[in-house]
Amino acid sequence: MENVQRKEINLDEIKNADENDLFYFVDNNSLSSERITAPKYSYWKSVFRVFFKKKINWIILIFFVVLILSIIFFPIFLPYSQYANVGDPSTKYLDPLSAMSRFGWTYCLGTGTFGQSIFLSLWVASAISLGVSVACAAINMTLGILIGAIWGYSKRLDMILNVVYNIIANVPYILLTSVLMFVLQPGIATFILALTITGWIGIAYFFRTQVLIIRDREYNLASRCLGTRTPKVVTRNVLPFLISVIVTLLATELPGYISMEVFLSYIGLGLKTDTSLGKMISAFQSNFTAYPWGFWPPVVMSAAITIILYVLGQNLADASDPRSHMQ
After folding, report:
1. What is this structure's pTM?
2. Is the dihedral of CA 22, 28, 32, 38 positive or negative?
């Protein structure tokens, strides 16, 4: 038999070895022999890598950023007053060309009922509608996710909230919201209260079902056997697993509140004292054929915001799914 000579290990080479090398000699007594070489993984980096891989997402996101910046800065740099020309009856319902020739480019969409600029009122209305929708979504999603996650774990709470949910679920949501808007003093705070007083419970019930599906999986049982408390199991194990579900639900909730605001204002139960997209549509609903320049801009703006939010949310939800990170 041939004598196999064992290669002596040079300790200096071990110390100078690059940690990123897949193979290098190590000392038998060194803890580095237990080191596993694997590429570093970041969940959110992987999410955004998958999301921005599609060019259509870049285009939609850029358009959405420009739209949001316009909604924020137009009312700041171009002050708007709904009753600026109310004393001059000749300024009412001017078409875009007549309004521009008389007042300038800020009246490029014509004038409304009080001679106000539809172009300027469109950005103010969009800011109010979008702000109210974001506030409603933030409240309902936060309460719904946290309560739903605990609801799925606590059997005692499950009995109570199931009764509450069955009672509230049998009351039409649009009817309850309309009654609250009719009874209470109209305003932004009232509108947010009407949409959030019971809006969270449907989200909570949905997440309760999701938690019931995954709460008894092996890693959750192991955490509980090791003495981990339920709130920590929920925040560390359950909710991160449901990120894609949360993003998917948010993609439908946020545009839904914009549509709800437009609908309630359209039937006369929305924001009374503040300019909003629904209020602008309602103001021109009876004569939109005679003055289309007042009716269609808020309709187009509402549809654009809703569609963009929905598409971005759905694409982000797809990118949040860990299965889409595999190459």
Report:
1. 0.74
2. positive
Contact present, 272 and 84 (Cβ < 8 Å) = no
In the structure encoding, which two tokens stand for residue 103, read together? 């007042």
Given 4.10.480.10, 3.30.1330.10, 1.10.1140.10, 1.10.3720.10, which CATH number is that of 43-80+117-325? 1.10.3720.10
Torsions phi, psi for 288 (to 5 deg): -70, -20
**Helix, strand, or coil (residue 302):** helix
| pLDDT above 90 as % of the chain | 2
Q: Which two tokens stand for residue 202?
A: 């449907």
Instruction: Supply φ then ψ for residue 117, to 5 degrees.
Output: -75, 120
Report the distance separating Cα 198 and Cα 158, nearest Å: 17
pLDDT in tens, 24-45: 555 565 555 555 555 666 677 8
Tens of pLDDT, residue by residue over 82-110, are 777 777 888 888 888 988 988 888 888 88
